[in-house]
Structure to design on (628 residues):
């Protein structure tokens, strides 16, 4: 191309229109009214005592009994300073208890050192994923900054509130009171235990924790006691929120969002380097030194689906893949600002195949998707269905519906509530032998009513809408991840 | 993600050098511990440069058994002035402040004034206190 004055000027004009700086976005947002989705990041000032939820639609499934535990940020703002990023609010553990058609809801904040100190001085001062924090922070160890706000793991009569940079926080499953940080072995106190443990078909549990280009690989027994913990080297110091596994392998996806320099907030340490591509590290569970690296085109991600391996050794797994980290860096800040448009393109469900000859490929389903989940009984086996939240649009930052994607037929079975609902992650609750013979249980925030709802969908007929909907008399802010205890 | 391994280095105690003594001044530190085994290792510093600089020597150091009903470290005959204290509880009695594989302390540690650092050891500015006569503090080291 021959540069000339005219196309240079046009290029400059296009560039200035396209490059909207975060400062510009914030200045524009400050002029605007609060978004209609603002309840998603509203503050809850206190715990929510157990209360009944009212059946407002359909019929309660007779065979559905259990508890949906969910975690997510519940308080961002204090008079002396606030969390400025969606990932940094205080952890709020919720329990939707379903029994004989009746549902109760309760929620309790994780009683962390961070929350105690910030309650005392009435200011959010602790640095986090996207919140810079300030000199008033008291951080003697990782867990002094632990927000315990990301996910939950059921552990006997406890639920463990999971974060990324520190230990799990044990809470009572019966009343959600905080017990202690979980130390799986004395010499491993404070080691990071990430938010997405993988449940092996043999009942054991795998997880990872990151520190630069090193990771601890946790292997827990079914009773949640420690089997092994080993530190491994990673080919790059990449930020990751999730990993996945087949029956024989761990799969670590290394997006090109890599450590660049020290600093706070945590995410400011990483640089998006799309020219590096995305790598996949395959590790043999039986010998963590046996590994293989695959190269894929650049994508970003937070969440992976389950992985499986066929008889030939070919491995497949799904991913909610994004184009860049605009949402993680800036979008999640606008979420807490509660006004303005949220930057970042929504993730698309993709299938990744790792061939035995070291080739890797990635195929897009075409559907917008986040929080991919499959039948927990089929971990390690080829799933037909992936359930995911749906209905995000460029003008709608949060999901408005739920869908399954059928990998065999390439068909989406979706139900969209419309803009009056923010739909949260669904869990898969098996009821019969077939994969589709399951309930999908997901809460939502009903923006029209200003309350939290819980929905049960038939996994075989999502498009029919919820089979049953229960309504609370209170709105909880949007959560991140849940676990079902049957 | 947050490194405070320097605490461990700072707390590797060395013998106290001889110093000018004053019979009038002493520091009594009572430790509230979470474990009854091992020793609480205590180091006293008399300057910001010694306290904040990782390798400097303390003006006094002692080790107190954690098995007693009260765990008390006493420093006597001190010149009047400002001091700050670092301590760790060597729960397993191996003489070291043990760390996890990512370099974070796994044994309890504390500073005078119960000061807490900000992604590192507490600084002199938060931990120092004046000594004139007898000065007592109760330190939580759990």
């Amino acid at each position: 191309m021959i540069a000339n004055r005219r196309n240079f000027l046009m290029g400059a004009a296009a560039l200035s229109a396209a490059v909207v700086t975060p400062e510009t976005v914030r200045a524009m947002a400050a002029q605007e009214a609060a978004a209609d989705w603002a309840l998603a990041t509203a503050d809850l000032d206190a715990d929510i005592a157990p209360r009944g939820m009212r059946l407002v639609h359909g019929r309660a499934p007779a065979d559905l009994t259990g508890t949906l535990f969910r975690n997510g940020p519940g308080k961002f703002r204090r008079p002396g300073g606030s969390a400025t990023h969606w990932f940094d609010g205080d952890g709020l553990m919720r329990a939707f208890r379903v029994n004989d058609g009746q549902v109760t809801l309760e929620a309790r904040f994780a009683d962390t050192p961070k929350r105690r100190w910030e309650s005392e001085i009435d200011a959010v001062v602790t640095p986090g994923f996207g919140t810079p924090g300030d000199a008033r922070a008291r951080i003697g160890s990782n867990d002094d900054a632990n927000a315990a706000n990301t996910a939950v793991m059921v552990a006997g009569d406890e639920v463990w509130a999971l974060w990324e940079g520190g230990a799990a926080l044990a809470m009572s499953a019966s009343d959600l009171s905080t017990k202690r940080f979980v130390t799986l072995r004395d010499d491993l106190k404070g080691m990071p235990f990430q938010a997405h443990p993988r449940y092996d078909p043999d009942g054991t549990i795998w997880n990872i924790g990151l520190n630069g280009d090193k990771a601890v690989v946790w292997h827990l027994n079914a009773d949640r006691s420690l089997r092994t913990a080993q530190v491994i080297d990673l080919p790059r110091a990449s930020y990751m929120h999730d990993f996945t596994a087949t029956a024989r392998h761990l799969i670590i996806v290394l997006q090109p969002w890599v450590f660049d320099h020290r600093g706070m907030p945590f995410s400011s340490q990483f640089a998006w380097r799309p020219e590096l591509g995305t790598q996949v590290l395959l590790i043999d569970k039986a010998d963590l030194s046996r590994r293989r690296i695959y190269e894929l085109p650049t994508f970003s991600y937070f969440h992976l689906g389950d992985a499986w391996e066929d008889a030939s050794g070919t491995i497949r797994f799904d991913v909610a893949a994004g184009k860049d980290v605009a949402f993680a860096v800036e979008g999640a800040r606008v979420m807490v600002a509660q006004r303005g448009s949220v930057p970042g393109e929504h993730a698309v469900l993709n299938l990744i195949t790792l061939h035995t000859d070291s080739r890797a490929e990635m195929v897009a389903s075409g559907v917008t998707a986040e929080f991919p989940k499959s039948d927990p009984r089929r971990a390690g086996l080829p799933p037909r269905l992936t359930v995911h939240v749906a209905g995000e649009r460029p003008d709608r930052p949060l999901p408005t519906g739920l869908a399954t994607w059928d990998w065999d037929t390439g068909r989406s079975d979706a139900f969209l509530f419309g803009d009056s609902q923010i739909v949260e992650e669904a869990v898969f609750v098996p009821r019969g032998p077939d994969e589709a013979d399951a309930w999908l249980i997901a809460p939502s925030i009903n923006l029209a009513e200003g309350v939290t709802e819980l929905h049960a969908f038939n996994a075989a007929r999502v498009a029919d809408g919820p089979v049953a909907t229960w309504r609370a008399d209170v709105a909880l802010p949007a959560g991140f991840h849940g676990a079902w205890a049957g | 993600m947050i490194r405070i391994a320097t605490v461990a280095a700072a707390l590797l105690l060395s013998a106290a050098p001889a110093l000018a003594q004053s019979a009038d001044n002493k520091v009594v530190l009572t430790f509230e511990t979470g474990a009854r085994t091992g020793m609480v290792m205590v180091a006293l510093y008399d300057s910001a440069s010694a306290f904040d600089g990782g390798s400097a020597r303390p003006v006094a150091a002692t080790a107190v058994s954690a098995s007693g009903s009260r765990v008390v470290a006493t420093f006597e005959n001190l010149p009047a002035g400002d001091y700050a204290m670092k301590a760790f509880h060597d729960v397993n009695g191996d003489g070291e402040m043990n760390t996890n594989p990512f370099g974070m302390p796994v044994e309890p540690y504390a500073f005078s004034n119960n000061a807490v650092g900000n992604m590192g050891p507490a600084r002199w500015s938060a931990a120092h206190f004046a000594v004139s006569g007898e000065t007592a503090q109760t330190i939580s080291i759990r």
